[in-house]
C-alpha cells in the first residue's frame, strides 16, 4: 500500500478562508484510491525534519499571524524547509505562506520583513487589497476548460517573480500576483505557490492529483499513475464559477 506523509505547517496560525480544505482534498483523494495519508501538524516550537514528509502545506495568514510565527520559522524551520525543497519534496504554499517562501515582505507600513529566501520572489504591501474570485490557467493541466483553475484571493501584498521562478499560471479573471503583469502564483522545483485559498484543491481536482502524483513518483519508483475518480461535482462547481465570471 502506498503511503504519503503530509506536513501541515502552522495549522493553528495560517488557516484563512478554509485553507484546511486543501489538506482535506489531498487526504480524501488519496483515501478514495487506497493510498494512506498521514497528516502531521507542525507549529510553534516544533522542529521541521526535512526527510519526514512527502508533501508540505503552508496556508495563508494576515500580517499579524505572519509576525507571530516569524522568529520560529526563521530560527527553527528555515534550514529544514530549504533542504526539503532542494530534495524535491512537494510543497503547496498559499498567500501568506507563498509570501514567506520568498526574499522579503515589505508591509504597507514600510517595514521590510526578511522571509525564507528559498525562492526568488518578493512582496510589497499596498493600501488597496486584492479581493475576490480568481480564475487562472495552468499550462498543461488536464482540467476542463483550458486548464482553468478557480479560487479566491484576498491579499494586500503584490508579489513579483525573479529569475529561476516561473509563474504557476496566467490570470484569466481577478488580480493574481500583483494585478499588473497577468501572472498568478509561482513554481520552483516541486513547490507550488498560489494566492488562491482553501477552495483551491477541492474545486480543482487535476491540480490535487498533480501534487499527489509528484509525491508518489518521488517516493515509489514503481508508481505509474493515479486511477481516475468521478469528479462531476467538482467540475460542476468549477464550471459554474467560470460561467459566472467570464462567460456572461
Ligand atoms: N498578509 C498577507 C497580505 O495581506 C497575506 C494575506 C493572506 O494570506 N490572505 O498580503
Largest beta-sheet characterization:
6 strands, mixed
Using the 3D structure, state the CATH architecture: 3-Layer(aba) Sandwich
CATH topology: Rossmann fold
Q: End-to-end distance, in Å?
A: 46 Å
CATH superfamily: Class I glutamine amidotransferase (GATase) domain
Oligomerization state: single chain
Query: Which series of helices and strands comes N to C?
Result: EHEEHEHEEEEEEEEHHH
Radius of gyration: 17 Å
> CATH first level: which class?
Alpha Beta
Quote the average pLDDT.
Answer: 95
Total domains, how many?
1
Number of strands: 12
Spans where pLDDT lies below 50 across 5 or more residues: none
Estimated helix fraction: 25-40%
Our estimate of the beta-strand percent is 25-35%
Report the total helices: 6
Structural commentary:
This protein is an alpha/beta fold. It has one domain (3-245): 3-Layer(aba) Sandwich (Rossmann fold), CATH 3.40.50. The chain is built from 6 helices and 12 strands. α1 (20-31) packs across α5 (205-219). The structure holds glutamine.
